[in-house]
Write a structure and sequence with these properties.
With 412 residues, the chain is an alpha/beta fold. The chain has two domains: 11-119, Methane Monooxygenase Hydroxylase, Chain G, domain 1 (Up-down Bundle), CATH 1.20.58; 124-222 and 259-378, 2-enoyl-CoA Hydratase, Chain A, domain 1 (Alpha-Beta Complex), CATH 3.90.226. The chain is built from 19 helices and ten strands. The longest helix has 23 residues, at 27-49.
Length: 412
């Protein structure tokens, strides 16, 4: 008979009992025990891991610290590395327990808000590069580039051989570029665009972003933690600005933020479309389109379920997410998302015009109005609760037989 796990209510005693139980429990029993422990002790655990909220740990650091503090609570870095070296179809899903831990942290108000703030602080490697970028106005990384032109910073997604798709190799580069664009003292506006690509159909043309790299997903290179790092990191920084290392009520938070413009060439698929939902303005080519093929991919499309309905309404949002509906930017539906739609050859000039309009009289009040819209539409507390559910559900979606089958069917 399988041993039972019960809680005493004392953190240290329950932690010892959990580790002992995990050594002999089945996967299902072990996961139930972990979730029971976290439901009871996540606040106390987070306080220990962050020294009473005095340390800001990013997601991987936090989960790694938890694995060292309580044996078996989260998978070790070695176990995760062994898993990620296998094709997705051969992985056992040990990373689910890492995601469930983070879901419980996010589900607890004080802990979750502190974690959201930790992920919005500038990366250490971004701060190291800041003096060079401020002086030169240029940064070139493997998967992203950043250039200051006048009063604007241009962040360019650079994966030309993969239609500017995103994966575990590109995420850090894009976040560094976003950090520096927001920290740069000599610019007032940021433009996000895609680089020219190599594909035969689009050779030499810019395209925005083709979403998650299905090749890397099928190969097992993209871990489930990637989804959460992307939402709480780069996308949240664009939407809510860089945080300061001081927790204060949202209405009075000091952020480093700027207006964001998307230059939409070609298409915005999946994660590319998710970027559009945190932009302040979108300039699109008349032949461009957007899709959210979440059902085909078998995953939740980030925070699109939270944000998309306020742009296009609930019914169209469900058609995009659940029925793979394509929306052409020049259509009536597309204009609900896109502010300016012009001929493909006029997109860059239209972006420059918008930059000039935004900066002509300064953008002093822009951030204040941006914060007011945010507080009314997507308060941080709502985002935190959404991310808790997202972390929990996406972990199981990532390893589901349906996702494996969809990749086999649709991957090229």
């Amino acid at each position: 008979m399988e041993p039972r796990f019960s809680l005493s209510g004392d953190f240290s005693e329950d932690a010892r009992a959990l580790s002992a139980h995990l050594r002999q429990a089945t996967m299902t029993s072990a996961r139930q025990a972990r979730e029971a422990f976290l439901a009871a002790h996540v606040a106390a655990l987070y306080l220990r891991l962050t020294d009473g909220h005095s340390r800001f740990l990013r997601l991987a650091e936090l989960a790694g610290a938890a694995s060292l503090l309580i044996e078996g609570l989260t998978p070790s870095s070695a176990a995760l590395a062994r898993e990620q070296a296998l094709p997705l179809a051969e992985q056992t899903g040990v990373a689910i327990d890492q995601m469930l831990f983070l879901a419980h942290v996010l589900n607890h108000a004080a802990s979750g808000l502190h974690l959201c703030q930790a992920m919005r602080l500038p990366r250490a490697d971004s701060l190291e590069r800041l003096p060079d970028f401020v002086a030169s106005g240029k940064l070139v990384l493997a998967a992203a580039s950043l250039e200051r032109v006048g009063k604007a910073c241009y962040v360019t997604l650079c994966r030309p051989g993969a239609l500017n798709a995103e994966d575990e190799l590109s995420l850090a580069d894009v976040e560094i570029a976003v950090d520096l664009a927001l920290l740069d003292p000599h610019s007032e506006v940021v433009v996000l665009r895609g680089a020219a690509v190599d594909s035969a159909k689009y050779a030499g043309r810019r395209v925005f972003c083709s979403g998650i790299n299905l090749t890397r997903l099928r190969q097992g290179g993209i871990p489930p933690l990637w989804y959460l790092e992307r939402e709480l990191g780069v996308l949240h920084k664009i939407y809510r600005g860089l945080a300061q290392p001081l927790v204060v009520p949202e209405a009075f938070e000091e952020t480093r933020e700027k207006p964001w413009i998307a230059q939409l060439d070609g298409f915005a698929i999946g994660g590319g479309c998710q970027y559009l939902l945190v932009m302040d303005s979108i300039v699109a080519a008349a032949d461009a389109y957007l899709t959210l093929p979440a059902r085909k991919e078998g995953i939740i499309p980030g925070a699109a379920n939270l944000r998309l309905p306020r742009f296009v309404g609930d019914r169209l949002a469900r058609q995009l997410v659940l029925s793979e509906r394509r929306v052409d930017c020049a259509s009536a539906e597309g204009r609900l998302l896109c502010d300016v739609v012009v001929a493909p050859q006029e997109v860059h000039a239209a972006v420059e015009t918008l930059v000039e309009q935004l900066t002509a009289s300064g953008v002093v009040s822009f951030a204040a109005n941006r914060r007011a819209f945010r507080l009314a539409q997507e308060p941080l507390e709502l985002f935190r609760r959404y991310m808790a559910l997202y972390a929990h559900e996406q972990a199981f979606c990532h390893f589901s037989p349906a996702l494996i089958a969809n990749l086999r069917k649709h991957w090229r």
